[in-house]
Structures are given as structure tokens and as C-alpha cells.
Amino acid sequence: MAQAQLTPTVMPPKTLTDRYRGAVIEDLQLPPAFALPYTEHVSRVIELAYDREFSHIPILDKRRKPLGYVEVARLKEKWEAGQIDSNDDVSKYMVKFKRSSTVPYTLITPLTPLNELEEFLKNDIFALVTDYERKFVLAVATSHDLEEFAKRGGF
């Protein structure tokens, strides 16, 4: 009887998918998103941001679609320097999302794999997690969220 020869199994290099073992954004257990309407006054935005210790806040239009975000530290800095009227609408100071045919929109949902989120966050400071139709902002995900998840999961 001939002996079967065992050939070593060559494992593919470890990929980002392996790193998170198939986990998706909902596995991060992110708190619900905190977003504000574009008509909110600067003074209220600063107050709410510091109460919750947020550094960036998504800004929404009247249909709750994301328009952009405000960098809280920069907003507060301008306010303290007297460069902003506290009754101004936050939309005057937000960073607008780029929407064009040359800049594709990356849909990030609760079921987006964490490896895709990690790739996205290489070029962006946070990701807005939305429903599939992009009607509602559900959460905000950051690199810090990924790092904490990796620590908890031993990745």
C-alpha cells in the first residue's frame, strides 16, 4: 500500500479580514450618533460638544442628511478670539462633505466589515455610519473605536 504524502498547507498572508475575524461595525457597539441641524447656533454647538466631549459633530440638513461636520476645537478657538458671533448658524463654519462624480461616496453601514472601515479611516478622521439609503446617521466611528475593539478582542 502506498503511503499518502502530506504536503504542507501554505496559508495566505494575514489579511485585514483575518485581523477582525469577520467583525462588522455593529460589533463595535457604538453609541447612537450625536448630530445637529445646520441651523443650530454656534454657542449651543460648543455647549453640547463639551458636555459630551466630542471633537467633531456631524451637521445635517432639514431632511437629516449629512451636509458636513464641525471641528469643535477650531470652532471654540474662533469663538473665543471673537471671530464668530455666538448666534451664527453652525453651517457657516462647518467642513462640507465633498460630493461630486470624481469623489465617490463610501457607504458605511452597521454591516460594513471592520477591515473596510480601517481602510476608510486611513484617509478620513471619522466615518458616518448610516442606513443603506443614507437617510439617517446612526453612529460615528473612529480609529480609536477600532483600536479599543482590537484590544478587547485580542486582535
Automatic annotation (TrEMBL):
Question: What positions does the domain CBS occupy?
Answer: 26-72
Pfam families attached to this UniProt entry: CBS
- Give the residue spans that cross the bilayer: none
Name of the protein described by the UniProt record: CBS domain-containing protein
